[in-house]
Amino acid sequence: MTLDVVGRYRTGKRETWMRTFDNLAAAIAGQSKRIIGRDGVNAIWEQIAFYNYVPVVAASGSRTPPSEAHFALGAPPFEILLDNLRPNAILVCGYRLWARFIPRHASGYADNVWKPSTPFASITERNIPALRMVHPSTGYSPSFWTPFIEELLERAHEK
User: Fold this and answer.
1) How far is CA 113 from the centre of its chain?
2) What is the pLDDT of residue 139?
3) At 64, which helix (H) or strand (E)?
4) Reduced to 3 states, what is the DSSP secondary structure of residue 129?
5) Is the Cβ–Cβ distance between 152 and 125 less than 8 Å?
6) First CA to last CA distance, the chain
7) DSSP state for residue 70 in the 8-state scheme
8) Could you give the 3-state DSSP secondary structure of residue 34?
9) pLDDT tens, 18-61?
């Protein structure tokens, strides 16, 4: 389903739900989607892997959060994905996800998962840098997050 959604985003007719992916691409590029255009957005998506941590349809409508059980379902396949892809960095989209993600994937994390002192953490024994960011749907400012993403990528490059 996620492959279908991303495929529709990259090639299909524009729909309002696509704003989430547009916001993420704009934050990574440091420019608005209007400026980078569809080819630029597709180039960004060629360089990143997208994983929907909650691997099931969690609700029949918007604004319904996943359950604890839904979040728990995402951990085992995510670990397999990490082993297979060996990413340089991880963007964790959503504070709610961060609070469930960190205890499972960042041993030794001692900060408050809901109000951390830094938006960065190291994931697994490979110390993959991760960034906690607000979910890129409504109320999201790509330009606010661009410097954080740049720092995440610097941390990944230094590793």
Assistant:
1) 16
2) 85
3) none
4) strand
5) no
6) 33
7) H
8) helix
9) 888 999 999 999 998 889 988 898 899 899 999 999 988 776 67
Computed from CA positions of residues 27, 30, 34, 40, in that sequence, does the dihedral angle turn out positive or negative?
A: negative
pLDDT of residue 111: 95
Chain segment 1-27, per-residue pLDDT in tens: 788 888 888 887 888 888 889 999 999
Q: What is the pTM of this model?
A: 0.89
Whose CA is closest to 76, among 104, 109, 46? 104
What are residue 131's phi and psi, to 5 degrees? -120, 130
Enumerate helices (H) and strands (E) in the chain, giving the number of each: 6, 3
Type of residue at 46: E
The domain limits of the chain are 2-53+66-158
110 — phi, psi (to 5°)?
-110, 0
**What is the tens place of the pLDDT at every residue in 61-86?**
777 788 899 999 999 999 999 999 99
Q: 99 is written with which tokens?
A: 């609070």
CA distance 73 to 62: 20
CATH fold group of domain 2-53+66-158: Uracil-DNA Glycosylase, subunit E (3.40.470)
- Residue 113 has a CB neighbour count (10 Å cut-off) of 16
Give the mean pLDDT of 122-151: 93
DSSP string, 4-26: HHHHHHHHS---GGGHHHHHHHH
